[in-house]
Design brief:
alpha+beta; Uridine Diphospho-n-acetylenolpyruvylglucosamine Reductase, domain 3; Uridine Diphospho-n-acetylenolpyruvylglucosamine Reductase, domain 2; globular; 8-stranded antiparallel sheet; 5-stranded antiparallel sheet
């Protein structure tokens, strides 16, 4: 992203000019008639974090009914032990912009929040003055079923959105953990993926535009409401996985997809080792089959699936379904998940002839790969298995208060080596561990310390360093998504400095020059970060 506009008026120059104008928009007038320049001047008032002082000023912007300073109301917005003195709940992008301009003037820090299911991701904030609750921006702004395009407020719950889309036999393939609660804005900002990424891709593939508020209080738009946008106009994709450190997302534009209206089935194959499960996955990838999901489950995760009933009530939702199944109604899955075995799980859909082809070919390929057993799951049994695969992160966090979960991104061809290396690292530290590997390359790797004490924390910190090094050696990326707050002072959840740190700092400075948004949470990109050696 160039800092200046090239001299010649070529297509690339026009794209660069567009990027520059988006990140450095004209001054936006609003509260106290402030421009971005005045917000950053040396006359800015000192920071005021007392809720007594903040409340009247914010109430003047939103009204008293949408400002909360009661301790009980604020407690649910706590991030790594830090509770904000005030909570603001805007209902429009203009109100968000007013709050951001006020925060920049007063040198306050904001953390945007949705359903608060993923606030544990990232490092503890260095400052946290205002929680910006975005759940009131929860309307469908634009929907054209014939054009397969949609725009909705960032606070829109995914489950509610999909219920509306399914009335038109469409859906958005964001079937993520905490599905019944998660908002589209929080899901995009956290970067959490869906089991359906094997077939439909990640949000980067079907997010076509966004409206967001920058750190100077400018309401900015990127992309549009058409599936094909001009190359180079995809600034909105930088917001994916940014944890709200670059801007506040107010509206998102998506391409929607036809819902699978035909029957759907599941498939589980069990193996004595990881090599067999990986061999079957390779065989499926090389075949004409295109399953909706394709996941590998380790023995440790299989044990949790087989012995624990998740608390998530809407665990049975699948594309094209619109029903809730309470946890008490879920059938046991111990018959398909065994604690001493590796498992490959697939989901597929289609007309009866297609389903028969999948059953026949998957069973044959599993046998050729050395499977111990196979099972075809129908409508009564598939939801229990597939729902748990979707809710793996929430189930793991329910299973232990001291569990730590890494997200590893690497080419699938490196999975066999990584499985071996990661198991060796965990065994050396005497830490229980488990895997969930998606076909697209993502691995969720969890460590379960037996106790939370200094000795265990030291072993965990050493193991974390080795995990980051193992991924770096094969060209992969690593993030420690979830960890107890007590462990974060010992481990940078984003790993060591990356080679693109300078670019990340420039992006942060361009989007949020006053460092208003979630300072410290994304440890790689503070404006004041030291230059790596």
């Amino acid at each position: 992203m160039p800092p200046s506009i090239p001299a010649k008026s070529s297509p690339s120059a026009k794209a660069a000019a567009k990027s520059a104008s988006v990140l450095n928009p004209p001054p936006v007038r609003g509260l106290h008639d402030l421009s971005s320049a005045s917000l950053l001047s040396s006359t800015v008032c000192p920071m005021t974090t007392s809720s007594t002082n903040l409340a009247p000023a914010l109430e003047a912007l939103l009204g008293a009914s949408r400002i909360f300073s009661d301790p009980a109301a604020r407690a649910v917005y706590t991030v790594d032990g830090i509770t904000p003195p005030i909570v603001a709940k805007p209902a429009t992008a203009e109100e968000v912009a007013e709050i951001v301009r006020f925060a920049a003037l007063e040198r306050l820090s904001l953390i945007p929040c949705g359903a608060r299911t993923k606030l544990r991701i990232g490092m503890p904030p260095s400052r946290y003055d205002v929680a910006l609750d975005m759940t009131a921006l929860n309307q469908i702004v634009h929907y054209d079923p014939g054009d397969l395009t949609l725009a909705a407020g960032a606070g829109m719950p995914i489950a509610k959105l999909n219920a509306t889309l399914f009335e038109h036999h469409q859906f958005l393939p964001l079937l993520v953990p905490w599905y019944s609660r998660s908002t589209i804005g929080g899901t995009l900002a956290s970067g959490i993926d869906s089991p359906l990424c094997q077939f439909y891709g990640t949000p980067r593939d079907f997010l076509i535009g966004a409206e967001f508020v920058t750190g100077s209080g400018a309401i900015t738009k990127s992309g549009g409401r058409v599936v094909k946008n001009v190359t180079g106009y995809d600034l909105h994709k930088l917001l994916i996985g940014s944890l709200g450190t670059l801007a506040v997302i107010t509206c998102l534009n998506f391409r929607t997809f036809p819902a699978p209206l035909a029957g759907s089935r599941g498939f589980v194959a069990s193996f004595s080792n990881a090599e067999g499960a990986l061999a079957l996955r390779r065989a499926i990838a090389q075949s004409p089959l295109t399953p909706l999901t394709l996941d590998i489950v380790s023995p440790g995760l299989a044990q949790i699936f087989a012995t624990q009933t998740p608390a998530t009530p809407e665990i049975a939702v699948f594309p094209g379904e619109n029903r809730d199944v309470g946890s008490s109604s879920l059938p046991p899955i111990g018959d398909w998940f065994h604690p001493c075995e590796w498992h490959l799980c697939a989901a597929f859909a289609g007309i009866p002839e297609v389903l028969d082809r999948y059953k026949r070919d998957l069973s044959r390929l599993a046998g050729e790969s050395g499977a111990i057993s196979t099972a075809i799951l129908d409508d009564t049994t598939r939801p229990a298995v597939w729902g748990r695969l979707r809710e793996t992160l929430s189930i793991l966090l329910e299973s232990s208060p001291i569990i730590s979960i890494f997200k590893l991104s690497v080419l699938p061809s490196h999975h066999a080596t990584l499985f071996s290396n990661l198991e060796e690292i965990a065994n050396r530290a005497s830490l229980a561990h488990l895997f969930l590997a998606r076909a697209g390359g993502t691995i969720y790797f969890a460590l379960l310390p037996p106790t939370a004490n200094d000795e265990t924390a030291g072993r965990f910190a050493e193991s974390s360093t080795q995990i980051f090094e193992s991924l770096s050696a094969v060209g992969g990326d690593t993030a420690l998504l979830f960890a107890p707050t007590s462990l974060k002072p010992r481990v940078n959840t984003w790993g060591s400095w990356r080679s693109d740190l300078a670019l990340m700092r420039r992006l942060k400075s361009a989007f949020d020059p006053a460092n208003v948004f979630a300072p410290g949470r994304f440890a790689q990109i503070p404006i004041s970060a030291p230059t790596p050696p």
